[in-house]
Specification:
With 343 residues, this protein is α+β, with helices and mostly antiparallel strands. The chain is built from 10 helices and 13 strands. Helix 4 packs across helix 5. It is globular, with a radius of gyration of 31 Å. The protein starts with a strand and ends in a 38-residue tail after the last strand.
Length: 343
């Protein structure tokens, strides 16, 4: 039986809280997260970005008895993220059947809530990825998360010598063009741009639960780079977009130097810095190594597109009946009206 979290499920969440697999790296690395605290928000949600918790309990089953799933809707978007699943598959109580039951149930519930896409940031391990694929998820890109320790952040060079300024509203068109230049078409499709042309591009949107600043790099009056700095209480999360047509990494160096200097100015240099590098962002890793970053985690970005039921008026064509041909009547006489014959 799978149902939404209730207060009576406190002990189940408590017992499994240390056996979870976290499926959103930016939140897991940057912000403290309490599974029970998040479960309470599903009972008393306060905004559009509420977290939902679904609990599995079936004592008669030998393999898949107890577990829970937590997911969060992206505010203002028909999308959600799987935050965690429990128990993890590498513990004694864990089993893929638990995850598959919970993911299938949440997919059905998300469809009812008009959610069009579900995302999961899954550790790049065959068992975990295959479990998600069994219920309709697909990998649309892979990502390596690089980490800069807090000590190296304080020692980083701050000079950058570039025209970098805060992002403004008038930069939207240039940033949309930059996103389409650097993002492969299959990834754009996975991020919903083909299904919903009016959807705000990821480069212009932010749905993480911590503060951020965005900056653009200009060269010859053209926006050719963007860096976003998310400030969590346990770590800093960077997102970077750079013109894919650039023949050198000069702009990338400028953006990273600026970001590290900005982190120091905000007096956040005592925290580690993380940045996700997708498999189509070639060459970024070598530049990060120059600044002391090191590979930390390998992840698979997965998504599941849900079927949306749409009510739409339709014109019904009725068949036209052909007119019946007229029947010509012939005169006739009844037996009574016939003249009698006499011999």
């Amino acid at each position: 039986m799978i149902r939404p979290f209730q207060f009576g499920d406190f002990w189940l969440i408590h017992n499994l809280r240390r056996q979870t697999t976290k499926l959103n790296a930016s939140i897991a690395l940057s912000q403290p997260y309490s599974a029970f605290g998040a479960a309470l928000t599903s009972i008393v949600p306060w905004n559009d970005a509420k977290i939902v918790t679904y609990v599995l309990q079936q004592h008669q089953h030998e393999l898949a008895r107890n577990g829970f799933l937590q997911a969060q809707k992206r505010p203002g978007r028909p999308e959600s993220d799987i935050l965690l699943l429990a128990p993890a598959l590498d513990v004694a109580q864990g089993h893929p059947a638990i995850w598959e039951k919970l993911l299938s149930h949440y997919s059905n519930e998300a469809t009812k809530q008009q959610i069009a896409r579900i995302y999961a940031d899954v550790p790049d391990q065959p068992l975990l990825i295959n479990t998600f694929m069994h219920v309709g998820f697909r990998v649309y890109t892979r990502q390596t998360i690089w980490r800069l320790s807090a000590q190296r952040t304080e020692m980083s060079d701050q000079s950058h010598g570039a025209t970098i300024r805060p992002q403004q509203k008038q930069d939207d068109w240039a940033l949309q063009r930059l996103y389409r230049q650097v993002t492969p078409t299959p990834v754009q499709q996975a991020e919903g741009l083909q299904a919903d042309p009016d959807l705000t591009l990821p480069i212009l949107d932010w749905w993480q639960p911590f503060a951020h600043n965005s900056f653009v790099l200009e060269a010859a009056g053209t926006v050719c780079g963007c860096i976003r700095i998310g400030y969590g209480t346990q770590g800093i999360w960077l997102q970077i977009w750079q013109n894919a047509l650039a023949t050198t990494h000069h702009h990338l160096h400028q953006l990273l130097c600026f970001a590290l200097g900005e982190i120091r100015q905000q007096r956040m240099a005592g925290l580690p810095v993380y940045i996700g590098v997708r498999d189509y962002q070639g060459g970024v890793g070598s530049v990060l190594a120059d600044y002391g970053f090191a590979p930390f985690l390998d992840r698979a970005k997965m998504t599941k597109h849900l079927v949306q039921w749409v009510k739409q008026a339709a014109t019904v064509s009725l068949p036209v009946l052909e007119g019946l041909p007229e029947i010509a009547t012939a005169p006739f006489a009844t037996q009574e009206a016939r003249p009698e014959k006499f011999d």
